[in-house]
Design brief:
This protein is of the alpha/beta class. Strand 14 (514-517) and strand 15 form a beta hairpin. The longest helix has 30 residues, at 304-333.
Length: 667
């Protein structure tokens, strides 16, 4: 049964389904590339499906979106691809999602501009799938991402409208049995619940509703509703309702933001001008949320208070009321008046144009990564001191622990040594090599028609986290998508001094190219030429070696013919302690003669979990076992890191940073 609002794109349709036989939930995808028609999946429909299911999985690099965590938190039991389907019943289940589907269809019918459509869908039914990747980046850079997620701000605004409607109803029809405050609370809650239902009762709306219910309880029982009482009762209720809320970044951000607001309101004099109070609150909110924001996003915009002063009123008092008016019109009239369509379109474009201007002129980004618990504690202690009431003297000392937390204590790489990180990019390849003062990237992983790419998902977040703002050299081993597909996305956002590759626009990556960085030697040992282009067998093979003789051999997708030729080289040119298994462990590579000549102590393979090629092949693993060479694979270990200083000791992120959602369930 379709149990969520389907998300349509040009490449696929995705939705959460519920198996009526075992009550399990699956995230299913119907890909349109190989199919002539796109089925009109609707919430509540019951289908008989032929599905290729896989266990929940995702890449593990310590940065970016953690798909495994998201699947675990949303209780998704498996991920699947629909092979065939047959509609069995148009069920009446999931009326809320059917309601959302109706509004979604009507919105698409009345609004044709992509940007307007995306914004209205996000604010009305909580569907953010129509935003482009650049849109999300703009919201995050300006510190306004909270405005497009239906959460406390929006639910609170709608509840306020309901409160005012309750006040109006009591003024028109005063009742003794129903007090004014009771009517206001009831109307506010009804409006809030309806709006949360439109958003599919998303996690963020559930938290806001619980806080409203707690506040309503205090009001209806005529108890003094102290802010911290409401906050603590709401926190307890949210965790009792669903303990997995602790896995949501929004849970921590929302409750911490409310806590900071409580402190702000208690510390600001009411006689101040409202505009001054609003700006002061925004500034204190920026400071109070600093540790958690840096811990979550590794970046803040110092001008966020100014941006929010402009964008929050536009969103709260213009867009949200107009969107609600549109929903009321669709509900009772089954159409949207032309004047409202034009007004909404104009206001949405005005909102987005204003945001674009602010993204250029009102962004002062500060990038900083909190890597240790002591840094977080120093930040937190400094913020607490700065947020203390005015009666506390010498609060400026709070700057000291914040300054100490920003000091860079990361161990640098000494001259003559290097570190290699094999990213977990699924069925692809990306390797980062660092010396004392230089950075090299070997391959960039894949990019897909949907816009998803490994540069935005993995590489750029990693570089941001490690304060790497430019690369000295990028090597694209060959032109296959899983190795060079994300290059365009990387080049658009990161400075790269030189690019070696197999295309004419790149510097030729051929035998004889060599250089030295910080007493570490880099040598290209294959191919001899790039014409004709031989696809996998034209892969650039790079050897990295320091003065102590510790070497790593990166092989791209070379196959047995190239391996045979390389095996004829003198041992000192090919022998390496670490070997990247060629072609992801395909049985067309890793010949015994090649392995014997390279004579590695360890072998690293880059492949994706449950990949359709069954890499690494059983025969390949047996070949390495024959030489007693341990094999480490990104699909089982996540990102793999090693250093010439530590020799053959390696670090696998799945083992060094274990999480409950990464544990494999028994077959």
């Amino acid at each position: 049964m379709v149990a969520s609002l389907p998300k349509f794109s040009t490449q696929k349709v995705s939705f959460i389904s519920k198996d009526l036989n075992n009550n399990k939930s699956y995230l299913l995808n119907w890909y349109t590339n190989n199919n002539h028609t796109t089925p009109d999946f609707k919430p509540g429909q019951i289908y008989q499906l032929e599905v290729n299911l896989k266990p929940p999985s995702g890449t593990v690099n310590g940065v970016g979106f953690d798909r495994e965590k998201w699947l675990f938190r949303n209780r998704i039991d498996a991920v699947g691809t629909i092979k065939s389907f047959e509609l069995m019943q148009n069920s009446s289940h999931h009326l809320i999602h059917q309601w959302r589907q109706y509004f979604s269809t009507q919105i698409e019918h009345h609004f044709s501009t992509n940007s307007t459509l995306a914004l209205i869908k996000a604010l009305s039914i909580g569907d953010k799938s129509h935003f482009e990747h650049e849109d999300f980046q703009r919201f995050q850079q300006t510190g306004t991402a909270h405005l497009i997620a239906i959460s406390g701000l929006h639910i609170g605004m709608v509840a306020l409208i309901g409160w005012l409607l309750g006040n109006l109803c009591f003024w028109l029809w005063p009742q003794q049995k129903l007090s004014k405050i009771t009517l206001q609370v009831i109307c506010g809650l009804i409006m809030a619940f309806l709006y949360a239902g439109l958003a599919g009762f998303a996690i963020s709306t559930q938290r806001a509703l619980i806080m409203l219910l707690v506040y309503a309880y205090f009001k209806l029982t005529k108890r003094n509703s102290y802010a911290w009482d409401v906050w603590s009762f709401s926190l307890l209720a949210v965790l009792l309702l669903d303990p997995l809320n602790v896995l949501d970044t929004g849970f921590w951000l929302s409750f911490c933001a409310v806590a900071v607001l409580i402190v702000c309101f208690q510390g600001i004099k009411q006689q101040r001008h409202k505009l001054v109070r609003f700006f002061t609150i925004q500034w204190r909110l920026l400071i109070g949320m600093l540790p958690l924001t840096l811990l979550t996003f590794s970046q803040i915009n110092l001008l966020t208070p100014l941006v929010n002063m402009v964008m929050i009123p536009l969103m709260t008092f213009v867009l949200v009321p107009l969107v609600l008016l549109m929903m009321v019109s669709l509900t009772f009239l089954s159409f949207i008046p032309n004047w409202l369509i034009d007004l909404l379109d104009y206001c949405c474009q005005w909102f987005l144009v204003t945001l674009d201007w602010l993204a250029v002129h009102a962004v002062v980004p500060v990038n900083f990564v909190i890597e240790n618990i002591w840094q977080a504690l120093l930040f937190f202690s400094g913020i607490v001191i700065l947020m203390l009431p005015k009666a506390i003297p010498q609060k400026f000392w709070g700057i000291l622990p914040i300054f100490l937390a920003t000091l860079n204590h990361k161990a640098s790489i000494p001259d003559g040594h290097f570190r290699v990180s094999f990213f977990d990019v699924g069925q692809g390849l990306a390797v980062h090599v660092t010396t004392a003062n230089h950075n090299l990237l070997y391959d960039v992983g894949a990019a897909y028609d949907s816009g998803f790419n490994m540069a935005d998902a993995v590489l750029l977040p990693y570089f941001k986290q490690n304060n790497i703002h430019a690369l000295d050299t990028l090597i694209l081993s060959h032109q296959d998508n899983d190795h060079s597909g994300a290059a365009e996305f990387l080049l658009s956002q990161l400075k790269i001094a030189s690019i070696l590759g197999t295309e004419e626009k790149h510097q030729p990556c051929i035998t004889g190219v060599k250089w030295q960085w910080d007493q570490v030697n880099f040598t290209i040992i294959s191919p001899y030429n790039l014409q004709p282009y031989l696809k996998n067998n034209s892969s650039c093979v790079l050897k990295i070696e320091n003065a102590d003789g510790f070497a790593v051999l990166l092989t791209g997708d070379i196959e047995s013919p190239v391996e045979y030729r390389l095996a004829q080289l003198p041992e000192n040119l090919i022998q390496s302690e670490v070997l990247l298994i060629p072609h992801h462990g395909s049985k067309t590579s890793s010949t015994e003669s090649f392995i014997k000549v390279v004579n590695p102590k360890i072998a690293i393979n880059s492949s994706g979990q449950y990949n359709p090629f069954n890499h690494p092949a059983k025969e390949v693993l047996e070949a390495y076992q024959h030489f007693d060479i341990p094999v480490f694979d990104t699909q089982s270990g996540g990102m793999i890191t090693l250093s010439s200083q530590s020799g053959s000791a390696i670090s696998q992120l799945r083992q060094t940073a274990p999480k409950i959602w990464r544990k494999k369930s028994p077959e």
